[in-house]
Amino acid sequence: MKNEYIPFPAVIEDIRGETVDTKTFRVRFTDKNLADSFQYKQGQFMEVSVIGAGEAPISITSSPSRKGFLEFTIRAMGKVTKSIHDLKKGDTLYLRGPYGNSFPFEELKGKNLYFIAGGIGLAPVRSLINLVMDNRKDFKHIKILYGARTPDDLCFKSELEDWKKIPDTEVWLTVDKPCVGWGCRIGVVTELWKDTHVNPENAVTILCGPPIMIKFVAIKLKESGFEDKDIIMTLERYMKCGIGKCGHCNIDDKFVCIDGPVFSYEEIKHFRAKEHAF
Ligand SMILES: Cc1cc2nc3c(=O)[nH]c(=O)nc-3n(C[C@H](O)[C@H](O)[C@H](O)COP(=O)(O)OP(=O)(O)OC[C@H]3O[C@@H](n4cnc5c(N)ncnc54)[C@H](O)[C@@H]3O)c2cc1C
Ligand code: FES
Question: Is the preceding peptide bond at 211 cis, omega within 30 degrees of 0?
């Protein structure tokens, strides 16, 4: 009988510092067959564990179009994530999954896309961004609107520069507190509406960030004329099992681990749970 809770070892091949408390880990399953055959979808997550510390749900930030390895961008928050941060190249992480639903992909073809993220919220969205970039001709204009507390808190800095160079792709940045030499906007993500036209025509928005950001961006998108079904977001919720058994992740009538973590605004606008209410 298959035991869903058994994790598989993966060796850490590379670690990149993103911000003072956030690192990106590139890992490869130690079982070569599993490494070669493993499949996942953009927006899914895995339960990532360190023996003796426990496990935490973490989004897969790499794109399914780039095979053989997985990437996780992890902020050191508590026991598990701090233990992961203590690991070095060559050490082992344990993974089970992938879990949850995914961002649409085929349905986005031929559309203008807006990716809107705050802080580490760019991590799950990056999986879809790079999948889209690897199939760039299938999509129309792309705008990435990204905000963080300070310039040092922006993740994937060199990739933000690379995406800017791709034809028909714009990257707009904002921070709450600038540093000397900061040349972009100051303020919350919705302030970027002053820099670039956000046009709902033939467009879909993908967003991720803290609940307060999601709430205000969704309001702004509605004011800009987006339909509820064209506002797609990925939510975080405290989780245990990741597979719909424990009930830890429920918001109103949904289990984030199996009904989500990706939802359209249409599906969740009725949520009454305080931090996710619109
Ligand atoms: C689908 C999904 C994807 C995620 N993707 C990422 C990712 O890509 N990168 C990343 O860094 N994180 C991600 N997270 C968040 C991460 O799983 C949590 O931060 C996790 O709790 C960290 O575990 P920890 O043991 O290190 O910290 P914890 O000890 O769990 O503490 C982390 C934070 O959660 C709070 N907390 C602890 N227990 C509860 C509780 N019962 N209810 C509410 N809050 C509580 C703590 O106060 C603290 O602020 C994701 C979460 C989900 C659900
Ligand atoms: S995390 Fe256990 S039911 Fe969703």
Answer: no
